[in-house]
Amino acid sequence: MFKNYLKIAWRNLIKNRIFSIANIMGLTCAFAVALLLTMTAMFELSFDQFHENKNSTYQVYLTNQTPRGAEVSTSNPVPLAKALKEEVPGIKQITRSLSEDALVTYKEKNLNLDAEYVDPEFFNLFTFAVINGNTNNPLPTKNSVSISEETALKTFGTTNVVGEILQIRIGSEEKPFTVASILENTPANSSMDFDIVIPFENHPEYESNKDVWNSQFLPVYLQLEEGVTTQQFEENTRAFANLHYAESIESDKRDGATPDVNGQYKQFHLMPITDMHFASFKAGKAEAPRTFPYIILGVALVIIFIVCANFINMNIALSEKRLKEIGMRKTLGAVKKQLFFQFWMESVIVFLIAIGLGLMVSNLLIDPFKTLFNTKATFAEVTQPGIIVLFAASIFVITLIAGGYPALLLSKLSTLRALKGKLDLGKNRLRNGLIVLQFVIAIILISGTLVLHGQIDFLRNKDLGYNKEQVVSIPLNGRKDSYAVLDLLRDELSQNSDILSVSGSDSNLGLGKDGSITSSAMGFEYKGRGVVTNALTVDYDYAKTLDIELKSGRMFNREFSTDSLSMVINESMAKQLGEEDPLSIRIPMDDSITYSVVGVVKDYNFQEVSRKIKPLTLFMNRNWDLYYAYVKIAPQNTAQSFDAIKNAWEKVEPQAEFLGSFLDENVDRTFKREKTMATIITSGSVLGIILSCLGLFAISMLVVAQRTKEIGVRKVVGASVSSVALLLTKDFLKLVGLAFFIATPIAWYFLNEWLQNYASHVSLSPLFFLGAGLTASLIAFITVGSRTVKAASANPVKSLRTE
């Protein structure tokens, strides 16, 4: 019996080869794309899940009740970790961890490595496997380091290097360190990515800040004792916060801050380490919305839904051709169960073929896919037993519906009616519902595509307040003093007429090739109230190099020897200080040093473009290091100018890698996630609309076949081709119109919510949704119209002879 089902199923697939090929092609594309998208989403969701203590390890963050509202800080003072462990019960282990670049030298090799400054307990909290060396204590002494396997091979050519000596630049001097252990390379799904691990006590800021509570610049992680909850930890730290932050609390009270619901002005919280990759902070609390991977999964699911809806509709469309076969089977005694298995077997064969081809296609596309979407995901993410079982169950259910529904529909027909080949599906609610759902999804995806690209263009073309097209930023990652490097660069480029200016700062604009994006904040008292500002150390010609507009006063000038005690502020900072004449402001800092405001610059986006511009203060003190150089070039000959900068760098810092990039590239990198999301949704929109129209084409064939005689009669009595085609098409366009009215409010709601994440964003114009609706309608009209025009143009005599 089974062999008979299989044989007939195969014959029917061959007989209806156009429908079979359409089904298999659609399912193959859908499975291949869905597999790649699911792989990417599961990879994102797997971040930091490999740590053995993931369920009891947290990152510490502090919520501050300020006059400006609740503010969150993950940057903590150096003495916090030790004090928490000693004074707060319930903490099993605690560690500090700070990511910075480190210049490492071995013989003639100079390497700029991603370093992690940590306490020894770091390896008890986080699972980073040791492959060579001391597995119990990878950092046994203050002068020992751990390096990754990749770093060992790059530096020594082997991993058997325990005991070797490396020279590491710490602050302004080089110190020897002994390699104590070799670590496995950090997993691709780790929020922490490092090449070398250095004991925290060696950090250049450690000694000067080990007892200072108002200098906050490092993350702290801890593991709770078994049975201790995060709520208990928060309660246990309230007295601790009131004690160690008493001065800051008094300042906030004086300035008008209001306490939280528990009466606290400072409250410690814990964020699970599995949330770090997704963390955002709103209203004083940490959130971890997994929006990006869920959107990817959503696109994969709707693509599968669309193609499965098509499959069901095509099976229904094919049913008309098989009515006489069904009637004959019923005459010979076939029962519902046998009809059901026959249709189900055909569905299973199609799905198995499509799955096999989909696996082949996804394997061919995986490398370009990973490059396009900048992901390190692999098929290992989707070969987990749970996912395979879920996938198999889904296929079983889909084939059951796709094969079972037509069988159920046909088995209800009387044998006589089946033998006559009469099947009226003109009012089929399931068919119409599936079409509407398909186009609802397609219109939402098209709307999302249009808004996403609109927002990206808005961010890309927004006036950031500085010149991003003509300025090259270069990480100062060499061994020489940063100011000396800037002076040498100026000298090397001074004879090049296309080089207009050179300057530097301690923070980059955008995200450079070094992958680092940092900011620094500070607070001080001004006229009896607390003031918080972002701080930036710059060199001469900073505003000139970046074309930042000066609103009043002046920038730092070589002719003024006192500029090391001067400040230049932005408009937001001037507004916060509240003086009519900002140039009259004098601010006393630590050690009775007074700084004077000498200039005010126009607000510019010194942080990510998505953020609101905050108060900023520029300093120029040569005792503070710079980390980036800026070189402004003339608009002509940009390629030659860039090469000239690179050549000058190789003369100035021959041992350091040149990582220069234009600022517009840096800015683009800051919304890489948005561009990836736009690419995924655009691809999903295109594939979704193609698959939807594929199903629509199949249904239009069915409807035309059912109304062949009607078409002939209308032609005989004088109906034109256009009127007949419009008559056959309008029912489908009504369904698309209904889909538009359902999809628009849904798309508007979710897109509006997403845009609220940006301080400035594109306006949600009705044109986005009208464009999506018109696009879907036009494609549907072309799809159905091509079939209906052909039917309306046929000889009416042939139509009337059809029986």
TrEMBL record:
Main subcellular location: membrane
GO molecular function terms attached to this record: transmembrane transporter activity
Domain ABC3 transporter permease C-terminal span(s) in chain numbering: 299-414, 685-796
Subcellular location: Cell membrane
Gene Ontology cellular component annotations, sorted alphabetically: plasma membrane
MacB-like periplasmic core domain span: 31-238, 527-641
Domain of life assignment: Bacteria
Tagged with keyword 4Fe-4S: no
Pfam families named among the record's database cross-references: FtsX (PF02687), MacB_PCD (PF12704)
Membrane topology according to the record: Multi-pass membrane protein
Keyword terms, alphabetized: Cell membrane, Membrane, Transmembrane, Transmembrane helix
Transmembrane parts of this sequence: 21-43, 292-318, 339-366, 386-411, 432-452, 680-705, 732-751, 763-784
Entry annotated with the keyword Phosphoprotein: no
Protein name listed in UniProt: ABC transporter permease
